[in-house]
Amino acid sequence: MLDHIGIHVHSYERSKEFYRLALAPLGYELILEYADWAGFGWADKPDLWIKGGKSTAPNLHIAFRAEDRSTVREFYRVALEAGGRDNGAPGVRQQYHPDYYAAAVVDPDGHNIEVVCHIPGDLEE
């Protein structure tokens, strides 16, 4: 089980604002900040850390789990508004499994950020 992940970003302020907005639909908040590190998470526990200075290379793929498909759609909308680039509109990804509903954006440093829901769509209706 992962406890947290840390990535380096080129522009600390730009990325801090991107993640603050893009992860809000998941209930994530900026919880802790010190020495060019920003920790995002929920329930007072940061599990995504960013550090300013230079970008992590090679670029990473980070996927967050959502409890419903509407959260996936909201993440995608907000992340694009916050400066992310489209890397896969919300939809089912049959190649993974029939209920893999996801969306992905590329963050300001080129990292692929995905949100996925594994709950069948008919359970939401």
From TrEMBL:
Residues 1-118 form the VOC domain. Signal peptide: none annotated. InterPro entries: Glyas_Bleomycin-R_OHBP_Dase (IPR029068), Glyas_Fos-R_dOase_dom (IPR004360), VOC_core (IPR037523). SUPFAM superfamilies: Glyoxalase/Bleomycin resistance protein/Dihydroxybiphenyl dioxygenase. Pfam families: Glyoxalase. PANTHER family: GLYOXALASE FAMILY PROTEIN (AFU_ORTHOLOGUE AFUA_5G14830). This is VOC family protein. It comes from Microbulbifer taiwanensis.
